[in-house]
Amino acid sequence: MQEMALNVDGINIAFARRGRGTPLILIHGYPLDRTIWNEMAEMLEGEFDLIIPDLRGFGASDVMEADRSIIGYASDLAGLMDRLKVKQAHVVGHSMGGYVALAFAREFPGKTAGLGLIASQIVADTAEWKAGRQATARQIMEEGIGAVTIGMAPKLSPDSGVQAFVSGVMAQQRPLGLAVALDAMAGRPDSTDVFRSFRFPVVIVHGDADELIPVERGREMKALLPSAHYLELPGVGHMPMLENPAAVAEALRFLGTLKDKGITLHDK
Fold this sequence. Notes:
This protein has twelve helices and eight strands. By secondary structure, the protein is an alpha/beta fold. The protein has a single domain (2-123, 190-260), classed as Rossmann fold (3-Layer(aba) Sandwich). An eight-stranded mixed sheet has the order 1-2-4-3-5-6-7-8, with helices on both faces. It is globular, with a radius of gyration of 17 Å.
């Protein structure tokens, strides 16, 4: 496994790269970093060229305040692909990473071979959710990351081992990175119409015990795209790649399988 950083339009983006095969970008959620994929990546490196970044403001990547938009994160990934001379990749995102993956697929369709959404959703925030995120962003900048991380681990997973792991990851993040991400999530657009128009393979994974994004969001996406591969995991919370990495890895293999068979999404 290679761990490195590349400068993308003035921002150092840290990432790991491992495996060989079709390029697949794994995008972590909030308020985490690329280490959430470590165990699952071992299961996929024989079939995919895995590119696993820290989003700007998270992990070892630079913190930037200027661009508070989901598209900004997606543009970083497109620039990283250019630096790596990767023309097309599957993009897979967890939670907030799913929002980034959706923005990437919308803005860079020619670079998108397939899409994976893990414990994520396509709808925009309600006014209440937007206000809550913005209030949390202000609190983090005033009081530090403990304002958001204390008490969050049990909401991420019912598994005590997973809770301990994510608590450690969250504790290493920086206040500005989290605040910028909250503002970006609050301002993201609804992706329902563009999701319905996708013509590349799509995989959806959701746990039925997810306390942060209810499983109904995953079921709704499957209903919009009946030919998408949908996996619902009983008893799994918001961290499927940590709670059941083997099942998630198996689901993501459908991205390569469906593309190899020339299967695309249904016509409207």
